[in-house]
Write a sequence for this structure.
């Protein structure tokens, strides 16, 4: 769980997140339960393997997805070039 507080320092503040996952936990659905949010869908498509930048296979991600896609939804984050 994380949050932010107002920045009253007068200086720009940067925050960098590093998130990891364990492939077997995703495959076996043995990760921690998500009990404190109401988000839909999944961010699993954004994860890439460090050695070759490959993404998780869609068949591994699909069970975590809500199945609801609406106009404007982005399934994989693409930074603006």
């Amino acid at each position: 769980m994380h949050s932010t507080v107002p920045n009253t320092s007068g200086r720009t503040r940067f925050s960098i997140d590093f998130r990891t996952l364990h492939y077997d936990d995703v495959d076996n659905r043995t990760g921690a339960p998500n009990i404190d949010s109401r988000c839909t869908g999944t961010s699993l498509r954004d994860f890439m393997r460090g050695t070759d930048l490959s993404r998780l296979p869609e068949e591994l991600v699909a069970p975590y997805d809500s199945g609801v896609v609406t106009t404007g939804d982005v399934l994989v984050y693409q930074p603006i070039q």
